[in-house]
């Protein structure tokens, strides 16, 4: 499901808000020049938060099959948030904004952050209203600098479906300029596979 605002007071709303706050924290930590006393105080506060959340931790090895709904949309804080999402069986479109947390060389988005965005967008499309599939391969071509702190457009579409194979393509644009593109193959899981 696309990440959208959940009703206030719901589990979705609380976990989404936590994810947004975590993204803000990631940006602040990445860009800080805080002195040791401030950094240590912040580290202690983060450890207290971790202790508060510990009893509610999702453990992948134990809790197989947890969906994005159970985890809460927005809890995957490595990726930028998808906004203005349009998703149907053939097309995914959204806007994103890479932040300081995603900083690579010379003020651009890190080259490793871009494939994560593609994998997430293409995965949402490949799995939309269909049986579960996983990434078999993802090839990324970098065409221009992908900047930070600007609204970027992510577009993806299904190229073809051949049995259990789903072939997809995606691109990121900065004001109409192609910055990166991807081709991918997702494979539908066999019955009973994890």
UniProtKB/TrEMBL annotation:
The keyword Lipid metabolism applies. GO terms for molecular function: hydrolase activity. One of its GO terms (biological process) is fatty acid metabolic process. The keyword Lipid metabolism applies. Keywords: Cytoplasm, Fatty acid metabolism, Hydrolase, Lipid metabolism. This is Unannotated protein. The lineage of its organism: unclassified sequences, metagenomes, ecological metagenomes.
